[in-house]
Amino acid sequence: MGMLTTNPFDDDKLREECGVFGIWGADTAAAVVTLGLHALQHRGQEAAGITSYDGRAFHSHRAMGHVAGNFDKDGVIRALAGRAAIGHVRYSTTGETALRNVQPLFAELSSGGFAVAHNGNISNATRVRRDLNRRGSIFQSTSDTEVIIHLVATSTYPTLLDRFIDALKQVEGAYSLVCLTDEGLIACRDPLGIRPLVMGRLGEAYIFASETVALDIVGATYIRTVEPGELIVVSEKGVQSHKPFAPQRSRPCIFEHVYFSRPDSVLDGASVYSVRKAIGAELARENTVDADYVVPVPDSGVPAAIGYAQESGIPFELGIIRSHYVGRTFIQPSDQVRHLGVKLKHNANSALIQGKKLVLIDDSIVRGTTSLKIVQMLREAGAREVHMRIASPPTRHSCFYGVDTPERKKLLAAQMNVAEMNNYIKADSLAFLSIDGLYRALGEEMRDEAEPQYCDACFSGAYPTRLTDREDIEQRDQLLPAELYA
Question: Which residues are catalytic?
Answer without folding.
Answer: 18
